Amino acid sequence: MTAQLIDGAALARHWRQRVAERAAALAQRGHRPGLAVILVGDNPASQVYVRNKVKACGETGIHSVLETYPASLGEDALLARIAALNADPAIHGILVQLPLPAHLNAQRVIEAIAPQKDVDGFHVANAGALLVGQPALRPCTPLGCMKMLEHLGRTDLRGQHAVVVGRSNIVGKPMALLLLQAGATVTICHSGTADLARHTRQADILVAAVGKPRMIGADMVKPGAVVLDVGINRLPDGKLCGDVDFDAVREVAGWITPVPGGVGPMTIAMLLLNTVEAAERARS
Ligand code: GUN
After folding, report:
1. Domain end position, chosen among 125, 150, 175
2. What is the CATH number of the domain that holds 60?
């Protein structure tokens, strides 16, 4: 059996179109959605991500402001900028690209963002709201994964076993909570898990978010499973690959996301969706 591809790029186009319609409706009433993106330092991967986010805003009618600062920026200066953006009525979303230089306390910086403008969904208020099942801004990558499952008709996950490999605050933990909320039985695996394959082979839905190139092999996947690959790893030859051994696993899985062109484009689409939703809430 060869898995069917989940075309994240095509699904992201669909969502971007819907976001553009909502952004246009807001703009018509004089409330164009606005996103501020802050990049500190010169991490090359972050520079690419940030550029893509700003470009996507322009393509969907969202006003964006990119603020770049040298790695030497002090924490007080960064917190002051965030306070100013919190108070700016033209800005509905604030994103501080991670990782931050080591001298900056990332959690303190994130907590400085007004929760209603935290379009990454990383603020403890939004993380807590997700935990207790209240409406909140949800982290973009897990949200994009859920939209992919919905696209496959998997909205009610009762009776399905989801396994998340990775326990980060950005992906693993919120992903597990969203799957749980949708009714799945959820296992979270991580670097301390013994016999990882024993767990992953139970998965009807397998989410790989570990940052290790091709670590999920065909022998770790249940035949027919939905495999969502969050990893974006650069190989020594410069090519990108996921956390899943795509060529091998596609012979076993039922559905699989490619890298690139899978989860990545959905992450950006969900950032746009969160921004337009934050703008709608600010106006209602
Ligand atoms: N670094 C890697 N992924 C992300 C993300 O989704 N948001 C931010 N702000 N930084 C990141």
Report:
1. 125
2. 3.40.50.10860
Instruction: Establish if 13 belongs to a structural domain.
Output: no
Whether ipTM exceeds 0.90: yes
Q: 96: CA distance to ligand 1 center in Å?
A: 8
- Whether residues 109 and 163 fall in one domain: no
Tell me how many domains the chain contains.
Answer: 2
Instruction: Give the integer Cα–Cα distance in Å for 179 and 137.
Output: 16
Condensed to tens digits (0 to 9), the pLDDT of residues 144-157 reads: 999 999 999 999 99
CA dist., res. 275 & res. 269, Å (int): 10
Is 166 part of any known ligand binding site? yes
Query: According to the annotation, is 6 in a ligand binding site?
Result: no
Q: Give the per-residue pLDDT at 66.
A: 98
pLDDT at 214 over 90: yes
Atom of ligand 1 nearest to the CA of 96: 9
232 marked as binding residue = yes
Q: Are 46 and 104 found together in one domain?
A: yes
β-strand pairing of 233-234 with 240-241: antiparallel
pLDDT of residue 118: 98
Q: Helix (H, G, I), strand (E, B), or coil: what is residue 40?
A: strand
| Distance, CA of 195 to CA of 183 (rounded, Å) | 25
Nearest atom (ligand 1) to Cα of 95: 9
Residue 280, in any domain of the structure: no
In sequence order, the β-bridge partners of residue 2 are: none
- Is the entire prediction scored with pTM above 0.95? yes
Residues 6+ apart with CB under 8 A from 179: 146, 157, 162, 164, 186, 205, 207
Q: Measured in whole angstroms, how far is the alpha carbon of residue 70 from the centre of its chain?
A: 25
Domain span holding position 104:
30-125
**Bridge partners for 185 per DSSP:** 161
Is there a single domain that holds both residue 153 and residue 251? yes
How many whole angstroms from 11 Cα to the centroid of ligand 1?
20
